[in-house]
Specification:
This protein is about 45% helix and about 0% strand. It is mostly helical and about 290 residues long. Strands 1-2 form a two-stranded antiparallel sheet. Helix 6 runs antiparallel to helix 7, helix 8 packs antiparallel against helix 9 and helix 9 crosses helix 11. The chain starts with a helix and ends with a strand. Bound molecules: fe (ii) ion (2 copies). One fe (ii) ion binds next to loops.
Length: about 290
C-alpha cells in the first residue's frame, strides 16, 4: 500500500512537471465546482482505433451541453504552435531582407481601412495560446472594452488598437504564419543604445502594418505599431532616449491591453461599428495596403 502511494506521488510529480513545461498546472477544484462538473455528461472516449474528435464531445449529435476542453486540446494547440514559433526564431538577416522586399509593395491593393478592420474577423493566430481560436477582431474588441472600462480609451489608443494587428491579414494569404505572428527580438549583435530603428529585428505583422501606416498616422503612433510585439528583455538595452520615452508613454500602457485582455472566454462589451468614425476620420480615402 505504501509502495502504491509512492508510485502515485511520483506519477503526480511527473505530470506536474510536464504541465509546467507548457505553462499549465494541476489544481484541486473547490468541492462545489467539482460536484457541478461531475454532474455534466462525460466526454465520450473514442473506441479503440477510432479517431479522436473534438467536434463531437458526446455520442448524441444534437447535444449542446457546454464543452469542458480537456488539457490535451491545449497541449495539442501548443504542440502545433511550437514549430511556427521555432521557424520565427530562425529568421536571419537574409530572410528578413527577403521579407522586406517581398512586402515592399501593396498586397491587398487599394482598400478602405474600415474594410481591413472588419476582415480581422477572418484572422486566427495559430500561435496565440491566450486567444486560441478566437479571432483578431475579438482581440481588438477585448482591448477596447477594457480601455473603456479603465477610462483610457482615447481616440489615439483606440485608433492604434483597431489597426495595430492589420498586418495579420497576411494570415489570409499563402505566407508562412512564422513570418506573420510571434514576438520579435533583435537578430545579430547591436551596440547598446543604438536605437531600435537602427537594428534588425525579427520580421512580422508589426513591420508590415508600419510600412502601410507610417505616412498616415502621427510618427509616435507609427512607432508603436512597429514595435508593439518586441520582447522587452531583448530590446530594452538597444533603445535610445526616444525609444525609452515612447516605451514608457505608449508601449507599456498599450502592451497591457494587448496581452492581458486576451481570452477565448470573455465576450467584448463594445461593438465594432461604434468605432467606425475613428477609422473613417483618420483614413477618409482608401489606402494602398
Ligand atoms: Fe500584434
Ligand atoms: Fe494585438
Amino acid at each position: 500500500m505504501v509502495e502504491q502511494r509512492k508510485v502515485v506521488a511520483a506519477v503526480g510529480r511527473m505530470v506536474n512537471r510536464a504541465l509546467r513545461a507548457r505553462n499549465l498546472e494541476l489544481r484541486r477544484l473547490p468541492p462545489a465546482v467539482a460536484q457541478a462538473l461531475a454532474s455534466e455528461p462525460a466526454l465520450a472516449r473514442p473506441e479503440e482505433g477510432e479517431p479522436e474528435s473534438i467536434a463531437t464531445p458526446e455520442r448524441d449529435p444534437f447535444s449542446t451541453s457546454p464543452l469542458h476542453p480537456p488539457d490535451e486540446l491545449r497541449v495539442a494547440f501548443a504542440d502545433a504552435a511550437a514549430p511556427i514559433i521555432e521557424r520565427h526564431r530562425q529568421q536571419s538577416v537574409e530572410s528578413i531582407e527577403a521579407l522586406k522586399s517581398r512586402y515592399a509593395g501593396p498586397i491587398f491593393g487599394r482598400t478602405r481601412v474600415w474594410d481591413l478592420v472588419e476582415r480581422l474577423g477572418c484572422c486566427i493566430d495559430p500561435s496565440d495560446q491566450r486567444l486560441y481560436g478566437a479571432s483578431q477582431q475579438m482581440h481588438v474588441l477585448q482591448m477596447i472594452s477594457e480601455m473603456e472600462a479603465d477610462g483610457t480609451a482615447t481616440p489615439e489608443m483606440v485608433l492604434v488598437a483597431l489597426i495595430h494587428d492589420l498586418g495579420k491579414l497576411l494570415l489570409l494569404t499563402a505566407e508562412d504564419p512564422a513570418n506573420i505572428v510571434c514576438m520579435n527580438s533583435p537578430v545579430g549583435h547591436w551596440d547598446p543604445g543604438s536605437g531600435l530603428d537602427n537594428c534588425v529585428l525579427q520580421w512580422n505583422h508589426d513591420e508590415f502594418a508600419y510600412q502601410r501606416f507610417k505616412d498616415l498616422v502621427p510618427e509616435d503612433l507609427a512607432w508603436l505599431i512597429r514595435y508593439h510585439s518586441v520582447e522587452p528583455p531583448d530590446v530594452v538595452p538597444l533603445m535610445d532616449d526616444r525609444d525609452r520615452e515612447r516605451t514608457e508613454r505608449l508601449l507599456k500602457p498599450f502592451a497591457h491591453y494587448d496581452h492581458a485582455t486576451k481570452t477565448p472566454f470573455r465576450l467584448p462589451s463594445v461593438s465594432l461599428l461604434s468605432y467606425r468614425d475613428i477609422i473613417e476620420e483618420a483614413f477618409p480615402h482608401p489606402i494602398l495596403f
